[in-house]
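Listing S7. Sequence submitted for prediction.
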Amino acid sequence: MADTSQAATQTFEARQGRTLPESVFAWMLIGPAMLFIAVIVAWPLAETVRLSFMEADLGGEQYVGFANYADLMDSRKFHQTIVRTFYWMFLSVGLKLILGLIGATLLNAAVPGRGLFRVLVMPPWVIPIAIGCIGWLWLYNGYFGVLSGTMMQLGITDGPFEFLAHKQSAFYSAVVTDVWVGTPMVTLFFLAAMQGVPRDLYEAAYVDGASRWYRFRRITIPQIMPVIVSMSLLSAIFTFNSFEIIWILTEGGPRSATTTLIVDTYKTAISNFKFGEGSARAVVIVILLGTFSLIYLFFLNKVNKYYGSGKK
């Protein structure tokens, strides 16, 4: 019996001796992830920064320094594109947050069949964006679309109205489509946050005679505020970088009415083969998004401290 115990001890010590140091084992775990980030993220970003200092096209490359950036700073059209992009982002994200909050509140209510309603809110987010946008193309069509036909029947318009052929209507039509695609994700995140709010808070407020609106304003909103702020940041980044919706609906037209920074970069670098100018635009996008994210994270930290300290 003693021999068996001694042999087991020696085997364990031998295995311990062959164990890798913790630092080596840690690097083995994170090494593949770092390699993936370096190949997929870091190298393309570095190459983009390098090309931004070049006059690069299909004919070759020539170093021009900061000339591409100087042209962007002097371009009134580019300044308008920046303003249009942020307007597109804030308008779309604002609508997503409002509709998502309303939808999550309704889906969180104890009503018959709410499980079915939770499933029905998913399709805009689940189906491929291209398929959804093709459906919206038919809705916006002036001659065959439901919207134009309904407007004619109601006497709002005298004839077919092409939503995507006019600057204002094309822009807001793209916003509506983007909101339709993104609202389900926001709704589900808010719903998950609401379900994590302790029920005893509502019960105590109900016993004290608090109305539903008071409970929503003083309990629900403060409890899910960190999720609201985090979700708004994620949604803002997704919307800022949204390309498929605008490209499928309008390709940035009419007359650049729906051209955002992402679409402008694609047109410059891919359609016009101006890789240097397109790279400079991409770098500007990274700087703008990085600055916006840092400011947003600063306010997110303030919100988390405020609601975490019980000052609500």
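Caption to Listing S7: primary sequence and predicted structure tokens for the chain studied. The domain at 69-308 is CATH 1.10.3720.10 (MetI-like fold). The longest helix spans residues 275-308.
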